[in-house]
Design a protein that fits this description.
360 residues; six-stranded parallel sheet; seven-stranded parallel sheet; alpha/beta; single chain; 13 helices; 16% strand
Amino acid sequence: MHIIPVWSLSTGPSQILFHLLNNENHYENQHSIALFNKKGIVPAELKKHRVYAFPTLLVHRWKWSPRFKFFLETHFPQFDMLHLHGCWIYPNYLVYKLSKKYSIPYILRPAGALLNQAIDSNHKWIKKVYFHLVEKKILSQAITIHALSLLEKNALIKIFPNQSIIISPPYIPKPSYSLLELNTLLPKEILNKKILLSMGSLSPVKNLEFLSNVLEKVKLNHPNFCWIIAGPCNTPFGKNLKRKISKALSDNVWFAGEVNNSEKFTLLNAASIYLSASKSENFGLSILEALMSNVKVIAGENQPWAHEIKNNCGFSIPLCLSKYSEAIEFLLQSSPVKPIHRLIRIPYSWENMYRDILQQ
């Protein structure tokens, strides 16, 4: 059973779980998913699978759901293992208590939540207090902690020096999705412009306001571009940020909303540069997808894949307005990047991780 607080096919872990559900005949294990949203509705793409959606009450971020509590207490003995995704949520505490009662193991994937940048990004003191009172016990009891990158593993070792920590990143094959006609995705007036692309939700950690300020400066010398932002915008912060960026950049920005894989790789195929200025990035899925699509990347030096980006594929630089704008202007006038698919293939299997743990 996977317990995932937020389901979105724009994220690597959701894509992996979707793949596991759709290819169960090829694997030893059966997978089910518990997810949460305000109305407790199963997403359309998951309706034919063993997926349970639970409505949340009060603070949505905490994922408190009486229906989920009843479901888990009723069915917990049926599971061989649980895989928890994320931190700071009530379902993890409930699994921790039931795991002690029934001696059923669980894996916990913090999803980068324990990296310093993520803790400092918002609610810092609440997180620190909650970690020492609750979250540390939950992680310590996990049969293993699931890190997505070496960066995350090294950070976790400092906190849990005696705990088992496994790195098992998302596997991104060479893009093989059918590309769509670009004019079915974009307004006609964008097609003749240089496309700059960013992907991800409009959240504080993505630092899109910084990129908006950078592009206001770039626009003075290079007005013929369009910055496409592909990702959900359904929070008050996101909606407010969208208004601010639209006002600042006007015809030089376009919001694509959440995109599926074919739409995503169609946009990547059309992009001249991929832009990322995240304050914290655990695995950097969208950066990796851009690199594998041979798109030049500009990203903060605090983000993953810095070595690959510097291999004639763009810039890994400090998040400084002048340096970032200079990098964009340089790449707008430079030649395409060399193919790098073979440089960044990652062997992976979450299934192998589950098999090894269950055989212990």
